[in-house]
Here is the input.
Amino acid sequence: MPISALNATQALIRRKLNAGPRRRRKAELLLTRREVTWRERLVILVPYLWMILFFLMPFLIIFKISLSVTEIAIPPYSPIVTFEDGAMQIILHLENYTFIFTDEDGTYMKSYLKSLEVASFSTLLCLFIGYPIAWALSKCRPATRNIMFMLLIMPSWTSFVVRIYAWMALLKKDGLINDVLMALGIIDSPIHMLQTDFAVYVGIVYCYLPYMVLPLFTALLKVDYTLIEAAYDLGARPVKTFFSVLVPQTRSGIIAGSMLVFIPALGEYVIPELLGGKGSILIGRILWQEFFNNRDWPLASAVAIVMLTILAIPIVIFFKSQRKKAEAA
Amino acid sequence: MEASQRTDAAAAKPQDPSPAAKEPKPAAKNTHRPGDLPGQKASPVEQHKKPILEISDLTKKFGDFSAVNGVDLTVYEGEIFALLGSSGCGKSTLLRMLAGFETPTSGSILLEGRNIVDIPPYKRTINMMFQSYALFPNMNVRQNIAFGLKQEHLKKSVIDERVDKMLKLVHMESFVDRKPYQLSGGQRQRVALARSLAKEPRLLLLDEPMGALDKKLREQMRLELVDIINTVGVTCIMVTHDQEEAMTMADRIAIMDRGEFVQIGGPREIYENPNCRFSAEFIGSVNLFDCTLISSDQKHSLIHTDDFPSPIELGHDLDLADGMPLTIALRPEKVYISKVPDEETGGSNCCEGDVENIAYLGDISIYYVRLPSGRLVASTLPNVDRFKTGLPIWDDHVYLSWDPESCIALTI
Here is the structure.
């Protein structure tokens, strides 16, 4: 770039610096921005490729299928683009979506709501159980901390399905829990635990608790404890201090942990299938049934797309808050 | 202007000799009774001042280590009191016990006659300004200042009014909506001060109040902080490791070492009349000489040291047996340096040597003079005249002298 042009650009940037705060920030970025080398671009390309190949492409395929109708063919749905007399025809079917929302039995809406309920409640349970654990982890000595981390992580060395089967053995009518309670004389007849919502919550909380604890722990490690002293000093009692100082300071951890529990819990299939009762049909099972039992791929795809939309809302909120925080810092 | 106000305030303080008076005669008294700490006994002025905080036999142990070791202290209403010491001397632990963040191992803390040892920090009428300021990052300036008032469940109008008053006091009215990260260090300190004063505490604690500021701002904020504290009239205890800060801000200073008070007194008293070697060395710089007492009568004492050919003459008597070992402390600014011998001294309180080093600091110059005995003695000269000539330079043979009243005899 010739020097005069360079000077002109810099003058422009400088003029922008004198403009409003938002434009100014942009201009400041321009001034500090550095040329990105092709090696760096290559590194950035890897996650992009991954996302395109394994998220965006399947998503588009599923979305395409959701806009067709089922047919007895291979693949079992109608094509969207057809050529008739040399003219291209695009037929988009929205029936699958309208069916989901207007189905007379309300099967789909009910299972969406049920899934949301189970996922939200499990997230809250994980938060309430995970917060004290994370706090204890952040407060204890490094040696003790390592042991506690081992205890937290060790169960995941065993296969996920095996652990759920273990819970079946624990929760069933003649399972260990009922046996012990009966032997101790606390109960006379076995409690019906397996195939209830209770069992589903036990399974989900048990499996996803570490994903709540780890981000909370990281957030609690960074807490400035003089702020807690300052709150005490200014007359705030412990409970008030917790909510007005500790919670805002660990906000990012709470959000990240909740996301890590809520998102997989919403589409959870194995846990409700093995531990849950016939009454609680979650969206994971609906998906399975539509795909494999009814072989209605278009409807199943529409169910999946709607679920993704439900998930997208909290994710967008999360990233917005993250960006806001990044701007603040 | 602020500086002159400060001097007025200093003059009114208890125990502080009026600036006009020459070196106070009774000041030498502490050398009579080596174990006696001046400042612990109440002066006539103090006696009719109301004590607000009484600490007795306060001890804090962390395992085997005594951070604070059986200290006694009385702080009077409206006073600015400084705890001065190097890091690890226990001053912060003492402050944290006052705030309620540490529980004493033994002893009592009476605030207006009431023992507060078992009262949790959120119920004490004491507020603290933290070294890091500890402003809540998620709240703006107004919310930060209002936080303490909200805990008292006051009416919104009352809170708003009080917050406005505080903002005005610290000149931060135009920053109400800013978050702490949008403020400079000095502004954060103002907000922190406003927040700790908003609840109108009986006692204000300042933990290294200037610790997070740069040097220039520090000097400016010292006087401003004192101004604000005096306007409010709150009793204040501050912790600092910076002697200059303690001396400009505090009415009285306690020098702490290894969990105990070494000396308590006004800035002038502590500087001019240290009661032990530690005190003398901790505040300012000092020349110390190991000596023995030759003789002492009503008005004079003669002291021998291996460093000087002639004995040191002291302007008062010493209540010690002849031949007793003692230390003579001599401040560098009280040692006169000259290229010609001083005739007035008559042989005592003078010596000669060669200039080994000169530190030119702008306002003053420090001369390091090597005596024939090998001892290095520091002497300072104020640089009053811009173009003065004939000053001693490196390797010059010089004569040092001092007044009999300038020497301080120390036994511990």
About this structure: Residues 1-45 of chain B have pLDDT under 50 and may be disordered. Residues 215-232 of chain B form the longest helix (18 residues).
